[in-house]
Write a structure and sequence with these properties.
Elements lengths: L8 E4 L14 H12 L5 E3 L4 E8 L2 E8 L6 H12 L6 E7 L7 E5 L7 H9 L7 E6 L9 H5 L5 H22 L3 H11 L2
Parallel strand pairs: 1-4, 1-5, 5-7
Antiparallel strand pairs: 2-3, 3-4, 6-7
């Protein structure tokens, strides 16, 4: 599929609280906050949406930004609240999240798919009645090599070189976001994937 419906809602997954700031699991949240900063969109706590919420214009298109302030495994609550209020369907939603299966410094747009063991995605899919058709931005954090180490690994801050690499991937994702927002999904994917290490 070359073109899709325009993206109206961008959600960045993470855990709330200072102890989780800049941890690998918060990559999605960090990216959405960077997008807000880049485009001058104010984010403020909104109780009815269970998160930080803002709306503004990106390249002439109105967009809603959301960072759930529930814990990761309840991410769907916030997404569901915003999407229900503004009547936004799954094909118009982009969820940014950390991805164990991609190395640091890699960012990939993806259309639909399962949760891959990610608790935030799992809860969103559940809250959306099993509908997996929302778009994703997968931000690579790498894998510790042992499944038993994953929980501790994702909740740690990345070392400096990895952090810089991830930041570069986020910057690339922001650069090609306007194409995705306008529904030029294939173009956005091709451009972003050609930038990844």
């Amino acid at each position: 599929m070359t073109d899709t419906l325009p993206i109206q809602l961008i959600v960045g997954l993470g855990n709330p609280g200072n102890k989780y700031d800049n941890t690998r699991h918060n990559a999605g949240q960090d990216w959405v906050l960077e997008v807000a900063k880049s485009y001058g969109i104010s984010m403020a706590a909104e109780k009815r949406f269970f998160g930080l919420y803002g709306q503004g214009m990106i390249e002439g298109q109105k967009v809603h930004l959301l960072v759930p302030t529930t814990f990761m495994n309840l991410s769907g609550q916030a997404l569901q609240a915003v999407s229900a209020f503004y009547k936004i369907d799954n094909p118009n939603i982009l969820v940014a999240h950390d991805e164990l299966d991609l190395p640091p410094g890699t960012a990939r747009f993806k259309q639909g798919g399962g949760h891959g063991g990610h608790n935030g995605l799992r809860d969103i899919i559940t809250k959306r009645g099993g509908d997996k058709s929302f778009h994703r931005l997968r931000l690579g954090i790498g894998h510790p090599g042992n499944a038993k180490q994953v929980a501790a690994y994702v909740l740690k801050k990345a070392p400096t070189d990895e952090f810089i690499s991830t930041q570069r991937a986020m910057d690339n994702a922001t650069r090609y976001l306007p194409d995705a927002l306008k529904g030029r999904w294939q173009q956005a994917m091709n451009s972003l994937h050609s930038q990844s290490e």
